[in-house]
Amino acid sequence: MTSKMPDGKAMRDGQIFSARLNNVVTTEREFDELVTKSLPELLDRATSQTKRFLRETNQWGDDITHEKLALRWGYELVERFVVFGRTEVPCRPFFLLDSLIAKSFSQPDPLCYHKELLTPVGRFLDGLASRAVVSRDALIALFYHFYGFSQAHVVKLLGFGQAESQRVYKNFERWRQSGWQRTMNETGLSLSEIEVLEQELRARPDHLNNEVDRLMPVLQSHYRKSEPEHYPCLSEQKWGQLFHDDYGHDYRVWHLAFCRDCFMEVADHRQAELSNGSKPQVNLHIHPLKKGGVLALFGGDRGGRQHGHTRAQRLSRTSA
Amino acid sequence: MDTPELNDYRAHLLDALDDQPRRAAEERPVFLQVLVNHERVGSINCAEPNPAFACTTKDRSIQHLEIRSESGVLLGGCVAPEAGQRNLRLPVGKGSLILSVQNHFDGGSLQLRYEGAPGWWSQVASAIGLPAGAPSTAAPKVPVWTMTTAFAQIVLAVGVVALLAERVPNWLGSEDRAHQVEEEMAARQSTQDQIDQVHRQLAQLVEAQSAAMAVSRGEQDRIAQLNTLVDTVARTQQKLSSQVVAVQEDLKTVKTDVAQEVQSGMRVAVSAVEADRDMVRQDLQSIKSVNETLIKQVALLESRNRELHARLALTSLEVAKANAAAPKPTVVAKNDPPKDTPVATAVPVSDAIREADRQAFMFWVAFQDGTTEKSIEELVQEINGIKKGPMKSGWYSVEVNLPHPEPPDRFLESVKRAKIVKSVVTSKAMPPAQ
Ligand SMILES: [Zn+2]
Ligand SMILES: [Zn+2]
Q: Is A6 a domain residue?
């Protein structure tokens, strides 16, 4: 990683920061200033510790995918460190970072590492799901990326009223404007990788959708632990009751976005109730729903056509 | 590995980190998501009147707390001690989030309250030093905060013991360890109470001082009182330390890297605590004249605390790794054990110890003349023994498995009391000479 600092001067500065990161920082302001200047060092330190952890737990391979994973997790650790650290002054930044990292890795199942998820499509899905744990925009967007549901479908699926559907529309809007791109950047999926995925989806949609269908349980069993523990799978009858008696709105969003089986059941049931729709199925979308997708609300299948998939069109019609 | 693609990615991430404060500042908080230990537990709607949120966790304490916007931007958060309290006021948007975490070792509770931007009156009031609105218990004034940290060392040492308390039964698997752990916990609790008491008094003292700016008789009394309190803490601490030594003794039998790591970490923590406690005591004595010094001192102590904390955390990393590699992890990695991992060293060690716990004990017994074979059999059965080999010149060799705490002497006494028994002897292999 020395290519970032080719000249001797920058290197010297780096060393100065290193020393300062080992010393006590006494004020919030001092902490912020120092951290802003030393982000490369902090990121490299967190990344190399992540690598060490992966190596020592037999989860390492010498390739760019693993390097990217380590960078991504290192990044997430530094992000927390930067925000948490200000509340911890006076402190020694390096020590604090180390202790934060050690604490994170001593949690049960700290990283979602599965060999099957190292493919481009696996990394794409993993990036979406891990973002959905911290971002409601991404959480709502899962319904679109996994099943091709537009905002109108999502509102109907979840049985939301006026105020909540406003929120869903905002989620879609922010995701379209910046959330998706930021997630791709932070996941380390390059433009060309995304383009290849998009091409493959166009050429062999069933092949890729089957792959998604296969990977979803792996992914969801890891990230579903991020929901409160009192959110288990429900029987068909219980789901029906929950919608009928109009409660558990948060529950619906969280569980259905992260549980394929319950989603299929509820979506099937509610589509049959709300329209004469066909069976719901996995229907991967790589890019976020384009702005024209809003029209799906008013204009039948136009939202689906925006993205050029026959499956999407079929689903859109069911909501019109 | 150094490829353009990787460098590009790294540059992206650095930009994102650099941009983080700006993104956080731009967020207008409406729905705030609350994440505890990286798991989402709920949200606050700041648009509602008196937005608040509370939750409790079981099994694990609240170690990480994150507040994120609807789009996932990290707005604030903190790490909390594994046991004890953490109170914070985080600026979020124009208002602030008042949070209070209360942890014990097997769970915790969290309370959050969002306060919108203060009106002009409360700003004026605070500027001229008037209390504006109800004083919040969750956000005491600055001196109290710095004082609190001075005692973190003591809490930390207790934390080390507690860490051991969690791990040691796994290694040793004996019941009297559990008892010892209970005692340690009790000692911890009483130390904690006393520390809390000192906190309160210290806080009062500091406030009184800055207000009065003069030495009064009453303060001197209070300082004397504080000194006795600190002494009490010291005594409890000593008791605790001796228990720590006992734990160390036990650990010596566990010859693993993990044990050594923990041992050295503990020694450092304990001695540092003792040194730091003396420093705090000195500071207390000079508190009347040098308030400033104390605050600096506290900052130093705090940084030392971080060092210890980091060391402690790294130790737990070692433990975590050992466990992540084990086929049946106990402490971490409940799901997804990595495949094809080597067997961790901790496993055979603990087995060996458990084996040793069941003391196999052998002795020789002679019976009264005329005792029937049947009643001999009955006695042997009653003590759950096994006869080893045939009778040799009037002596039977018997082997029993004694439960760990039972001393062999007491056991032999009870055998001797049996009517049919003439004599009992322990000798390794040969029957005693007639
Ligand atoms: Zn996983
Ligand atoms: Zn389910």
A: no
